[in-house]
Amino acid sequence: MEVAVIGAGVSGLATARALKSSGHRIVVLEKLHQLGGTWLFDPRVESDPLGLDPTREIVHGSLYNSLRTNLPRQLMGFSDYPFPETENGYSGDHFPSHGEVLKFLNDFAADFGLFELIRFDSEVVRVEQVNDRWLIESICSNLKSEETFDAVVVCNGHHTQPRVATLPEKWPGKQMHSHNYRVPEPFEDKIVVVIGEGPSAIDISRDICDVAREVHLSSRSPNVKVSKLVFRSNMWQHSEIDYVKENGEVVFRDGALVRADIILHCTGYKYSFPFLKTDGIVSLENNRIGPLYKHIFPPKLAPSLSFVGLPYQTVVFLHIDLQAKWVSCVLSGLKLLPSKEEMLAEVEEHYRQMEAKGIPQHHTHCLQLKFEYLEWLATQVGLEGVCERAKLISSSYFKFAAENGLWKAKDWKPGNGIKESLLCVD
Fold first, then answer.
1. 3-state DSSP call for residue 209?
2. Residues 36 and 62 sit within 8 Å (Cβ to Cβ)
3. pLDDT digits (tens, 9 = 90+) for 163-205
4. 192 — alpha (psi -120 to 50), left (phi > 0) or beta?
């Protein structure tokens, strides 16, 4: 089949490799000048630091200079292409830098002959089904072109469009989203409120506290312990923001009050597919893309349209690798999808279970670090057992993080009862 892959980040590269291995003819359309997607560092920031102005020039990347992975390198490889230890310029650090991850992706593309499949500087602006083929309109060097394909795999990532907390516009200080954070120097001698409790909030807070006067973390979690953080003299943990004042004061629900210079939103991202035209068959509502069978195939358009890389809170590279291999198997006829009706029924049942458990709609694609989905994918592509090593390592890592807090998560080291043979990647 003639297949278009949109994006040359982790998902696009894994998908291109899987499709190429199955003999399909592939074009990878990448709007940037080189591969890497999320892992390509771009020092530029957007004109609107909150990322809300629809007329702004969008910067795709969200990396900051000091970023290292928040999964150990033993979990950063594909099922059959592990992340190297110390050979060929790799550091061997348990949590690699973003530069090492980009090197890994370039090595992967070179080893599997993917560069020749990628059209760089090609921005996709329209994807639409026309007469049982997919019409793709793209722009390269200010020139528009159209071509058709048998199938399209969307791999454009989901760390570009910021999701922000709602605060009154009357607050006079500066607000920005972590998407536009690069280095700590602009925060020197500032009083900063960081909204969020995930890895980016903790990582960036730790990055800026060396130069900021004060850093105050705000969490909406009901279990948060309001306290001064003992390992940093200028950091405090607070509950959710209650309200803000025109004089610059920020008031927390715990009763604390600070006069802040900057509010930094580490509040995650939204999915975005502005190029995709499906007449409502695929919708995006409250960060739920649907309906999608197994987070990949829209039943009414399957198998010719698919998405790879949507789920989060998972072992990302492994799950992307398995998704890509399954899409390739389906497009090759090696695996058959259920009927459209059966797929829709399963999606609706998933939604009902989420509602019964009280899981918000915007967490539809959150896997909550559970392995059932990955194990199902592995079975589909004939790789039963491939998840066992990842389960052992991740259970050790997340147990350590749960017992010691996310602040200490990167103090984790291999071992902790795991056989060294399971940790070895050669």
1. coil
2. no
3. 999 887 788 999 999 999 999 999 999 999 999 988 899 999 9
4. beta
